[in-house]
Amino acid sequence: MGTTTPPRTLAEALRARGDESLAGLLRARPDLLSPVPNDITQLATRAGTRASVVRALEHLDRFALQTAEALAVAPDPAPYDTLLALLTGDGQDDGDGRDDAGAAITAALPTALTTLREQALVWGEDTGLHLVRTARELLAPSPQHPSPTGLGPTVSEATAGMSPGRLQEILADAGLPATHDPVSAVAALAGLFTDRTRMAELLDTAPVEALSVLDRLVWGPPYGEVTPNPAPPVQWLRDRGLLLPVSTRTVVLPREAALHLRAGRAHRTPEPVPPELVAAAERDPQAVDRAAAGQGFMALSTVEELLKLWNDGGPAILRAGGLSVRELKRAAAALDVTEPVAAFWIELAYAAGLLASDGETDERYAPTPASDEWLDLPAQDRWAHLATAWLAATRTPGLIGGQDAKGRALSTLGPDLDRSAAPEVRRRVLALFASLPPGTAPDPQTLLARLRWERPLRASAAGGPTPQGDASDLRSRIALWTVNDAELLGITGRGALSSQARALLDEGPEAAAARLAPLIPEPLDHVLLQADLTAVAPGPLERPLADMLSVLADVESKGGATVYRFTPGSVRRALDAGRAATDLHAFLATHSRTPVPQPLSYLIDDVARRHGHLRIGAASAYVRCDDEAVLNEILADKRSAALRLRRLAPTVLAAQADPGSLLEGLREMGYAPAAESAEGDVLITRAGARRTPPRTPPTPVPEGPPVPDATLLTAAVRAIRAGDTAARAVHRESADAGSATAGSLPRTTAAETLATVQAAAMTGSAVWIGYVNADGAASQRVIAPVKVEGGFVTAYDHTADEVRTYPLHRITGVAELADDQAT
Question: Distance between CA atoms of 70 and 158, rounded to whole angstroms?
Fold first, then answer.
């Protein structure tokens, strides 16, 4: 009276949980919701599948995982005290010279055990803890998959195929009394290894070389190879059962003996407390914000320059997808960055929806219509857009230049760059940055150590967990790339997290943009013209001014101030874009804080005087000019031979080259021709005319099922509870109801079904039905009929917690609930 019976199965343990606890399980393991289980039994079965258990183990921190590993080598079930002893040891000196931090383990174990219970990896009371069978199989030792603890099989498991005679020999050499019962013999040997006093006496008689062999095996791997005639120290260990045969050439140190040598510890170094983040430097928070803002502005400038670079049509797409190495080098040179950094900016623009494929037959990359909208935003909003896209992107530019699983090179904008873990790692890295005081830059190595403690496992090729202890694992590499990318993007400044990035993580893009706005310099409406045909922009320029200046001049250098250089080619480019010489003079006079230098005015007038003097059209191509002397000069020039010109009229030359080649050829000869249309009008070429059709940014590849929201969790728990009630419903037996039992579909005739649901509708009682839907899927439901007419029954479905209508012909049968369940 007053006591509860311990659960006998995982299903019973889950059934005893409250709704909040079940919701917590589904939140921690969302794969269990795909689809929603019919009842608790199906939920427990799904929670024990290999794929689901592996995914759950991968999300454990190191100490929770060590707790599960200790349970995997403990008896099943294991009392709480046994588990604690495996983690803290028995207090004896194992010769390792290490403080086992027993107090910290004792304090941390209840939390770790609660985590394992909440995720349905452990069930049962503290008097008998059960690790789910699949987790035990994954973490328990075997020759193919050694235990993460480094422990081998038990004496019972290692001697399973040993002959009784051999067992008797081992007992005799170990000084144990003979017994003809193999079970008793195995128990006696295991008892010797677990008795500290007798085990110490046995080891005192061991040769020094034998103890050296044990030292090599004690912390794993516990398996070793032996020759047909082993050395005397090895033979001594074999004779006394301290090494048991696995095969003709392999021996193993049994678990009980290893635990004695380890002073009872399952792990050499238990880690109940996460590694502490160490500060590499402490800086002024305001200096950090300013540095991050400056780098963020540089990021905007770089992306804008990339869009301009591909404004009239970017590079062609490789047949296998992505950007060629040559085009990446070309982009890196144009942006004045290294190739890996150029790949990062290209991938970021793609992830933000600013670049995409144009979808043409000759497929190329080009800016999207969304890029024009992005360019019109204030600088702080443009930065927030890029930062948000970077946080959510699963594409990982750091992989570029490596190889995929088939040995093919990974290219920029190519396939196979998505890594579903990237967003979670980025956010976790930034969260660790944010955990430090403002202005503090963490040490990267302690950052990696903390991440490895939080997620120590990675799925192996065989589907099981494998430890990751160095920076070669993907999670650590993504973390290092995140640190570098955050500095490039202006998330961090001088190695510390900026306040605008903290606002982005805590409050969203709008708050981050508001925090960044005061730190970004106001765009200028002027430049400083100099006598050496250059213009200096002492800061960021307003967009119309920057756009016009990028056409009229070439960027010579960047930095705190941008230097533009005017050349005949750049002036001709502006004239080709439809600007007249008077427009250029007026533009410079309006936007220069210094007088327009006379050499620059002469340059504009000289290029304008010659611009359009020659006209290029399609013949294949032709040249026409009112000045016959100019045409004579062109024909006499040896450099025009490749154009294959001939005179058609005093003022017209025909060429075999196409108009574009003819135009470029004459420009290289020093002339300033202009292209014309079929009507004889000068063709104006405007920059930035090529755009892709509307494109959506690439969708990030999720890491497993999405985390369900509160509404879905509530509905799922309600459905599972109701389904469990239906599956376990006790119904009244009737003569015609057949042998329906709990869990099977009831079977009744159509007349009996109709009569029963009509009676239930009149009395307002609930009934148990079997139902087959249009797809042929069978299910059990508990319903309270409200109305029965026209071949349909309208009822409140307790399973779905809503009113539904069911065709009577799809109901296989109906049974009344027992009196204690009908209310």
Answer: 19
- Alpha-carbon torsion (614, 617, 623, 627), positive or negative: negative
Which percentage of the chain shows pLDDT scores above 70?
Answer: 90
Tokens at 258, concatenated? 């290893």
Give me the pLDDT at residue 472, please.
Answer: 47
Q: Specify the pTM.
A: 0.76
| Helix or strand holding residue 581 (H, E) | helix 581-591
Q: Which two three-digit tokens encode residue 227?
A: 């020759």
CA-CA distance, 427 to 441, in Å (whole number)?
A: 16
Other C-beta atoms closer than 10 Å to the C-beta of 448 total: 21
User: Distance between CA 732 and CA 663 in Å, rounded?
Assistant: 95
Helix (H, G, I), strand (E, B) or coil at 821: coil
- Are the beta carbons of 723 and 381 closer than 8 angstroms? no
Q: What is the pLDDT of residues 66-98, one digit of tens each?
A: 999 999 989 889 999 999 999 998 765 444 444
Closest CA to 447 of 276, 297, 301, 261: 276
Of residues 71 and 703, more confidently modeled: 71
Beta-carbon contacts of 191 under 8 Å, excluding residues fewer than 6 positions away, are none
> Which residue's structure tokens are 């009507």?
679
Query: Do residues 241 and 155 make contact, with C-beta atoms less than 8 angstroms apart?
Result: yes
Sole residue written with tokens 């035990």: 136
- Amino acid identity, position 788: V
CA atoms lying within 13 Å on the CB side of residue 264 = 18
Neighbouring C-alpha atoms within 13 Å toward the C-beta of 720: 27
- The first and second tokens of residue 28, run together, are 């921690």
Across 78-82, 107-111, 646-650, least confident range? 646-650
Question: What distance in Å separates the CA atoms of residue 66 and residue 60, rounded to the nearest whole number?
Answer: 9
**Section 419-448 average pLDDT:** 93
H or E segment to which residue 778 belongs: strand 778-789
Structure confidence by residue, pLDDT tens digits, 19-38 = 899 999 999 999 898 788 87
Say which residue the tokens 């009784």 belong to.
164
Compute the distance between CA of residue 494 and CA of residue 290 in angstroms, rounded to an integer. 10
Torsion angle of C-alpha atoms 304, 306, 311, 315, degrees rounded to 10: -170
Residue 646, beta-bridge partner list? 654
Residue 324 CA: distances (Å) to CA of 46, 320, 328, 763 = 45, 10, 6, 76
616: left (phi over 0), alpha (psi -120 to 50) or beta: beta
Residue with tokens 């797409």, as numbered in its chain: 317
CA distance 359 to 450: 45
Judge contact between 272 and 108, C-beta under 8 A.
yes
